[in-house]
Every structure is written in C-alpha cells, then in structure tokens.
Amino acid sequence: MAKLSSINKNERRKKLVKQYAAKYEKLKAVANDTSLDETERLVARLKMAELPRNANPTRVRNRCATTGRPRGYYRKFGINRIELRELGNSGMIPGLTKSSW
C-alpha cells in the first residue's frame, strides 16, 4: 500500500489539471501555432508558466486503484501487475486466464 499522502497529492493534482484544462489547452494551441507571430507565442508560453505547476497534465501519476502503487500500472485495467495477477488467478477479471504451455 502506497503512502496515503502520495495518493492524496496525486488526487489534488488531478483536480487542478481538470480545473485548468481548458485554459491550458488554449494557451498551448496558441504557443504551438507556427502561423502566429513570435511575440504572441512567447506571451502564451509566459502565461502557461504562470499557471500552477501541478496544473500540467504530465505531473499526474498513474496509480493502482486498489493499492495506490505507482509502478507496474496497466492502463487497460487501472491496477498494478501484482493486483492483476491476484485478481486474475482468483477469476475476478473476466476473460483473463493464466498462461500455461
């Protein structure tokens, strides 16, 4: 089980990303638009830098839904490799079977 503070910190980051998502995307589109003047693009980048650091989507960490473990995360299931194996062996994940040959 991951530290509760780490899990809570990640949840706060998710909330901030959601809050600033529209503004962030708009500024990013302006900053990456090569048809605009360089000064306009620079101003957009400076405004992006003024946003809270945790509003950047890359700061959100994928964590296991059950344990909060940050590594070995499977996006398709939303859990880590250890939980996937345990739930798969107990038959809790439909369509998942253990390989044997």
UniProtKB/TrEMBL annotation:
InterPro entries: Ribosomal_uS14, Ribosomal_uS14_bac/plastid
UniProt KW RNA-binding keyword: yes
Sample GO molecular function, one term: rRNA binding
Record-level GO cellular component terms: cytoplasm; small ribosomal subunit
Protein's UniProt keywords contain Repressor: no
Oligomeric form and interacting partners: Part of the 30S ribosomal subunit. Contacts proteins S3 and S10.
Entry's family note: Belongs to the universal ribosomal protein uS14 family.
Role according to the record: Binds 16S rRNA, required for the assembly of 30S particles and may also be responsible for determining the conformation of the 16S rRNA at the A site.
UniProt name for this protein: Small ribosomal subunit protein uS14
